[in-house]
Write a structure and sequence with these properties.
With 137 residues, the protein is mainly alpha-helical. The chain has seven helices and no strands.
């Protein structure tokens, strides 16, 4: 399979340089049959990735169930999956948890978020006054 740049190079050499498939193949270091195939194509079509099974596939329903019941972090979900025989990586679990987490809220928020009606600068002034440092105006 070739990339888009190589496809354009092949088409350019044929249209503007007048080279045949064998000459183009030699110029771009490809097999003559590959060049001949791409010369017959009007548009570039990238290769479609083949779907493959993930180590996480058998555990996906369990992850969704866990997250619906408890606000677990990805690390906590990973630990529970390990207990049930999961042999994949933490990054795989983390990416999947990020896609399926209900509500989009981070797990176990440490501080409650201020209401949307409170301007950001008020929160900043409060934080400064509590720390004893005042900056600026």
């Amino acid at each position: 399979m070739i990339d888009y740049h190589r496809f354009c190079q092949i088409k350019h050499l044929q249209a503007h340089e007048g080279l045949n498939a064998s000459q183009i193949a030699q110029a771009v270091s490809l097999d003559r049959r590959t060049v001949a195939y791409w010369l017959t194509q009007e548009h570039f079509r990238p290769r479609k990735p083949r779907p493959h099974a993930s180590k996480l596939d058998p555990f996906k329903p369990d992850i969704v169930r866990l997250l619906e019941r408890h606000p677990y972090s990805a690390a906590q979900v990973f630990q529970r999956l390990r207990e049930h025989g999961f042999a994949g990586s933490y990054e795989l679990v983390k990416a999947y948890v990020h896609t399926v987490r209900p509500g989009g809220r981070p797990p176990f928020s440490r501080w409650p978020l201020p209401p949307a009606s409170v301007p950001r600068w008020i929160g900043a002034r409060l934080a400064q006054s509590r720390s004893g440092k005042r900056t600026g105006s």
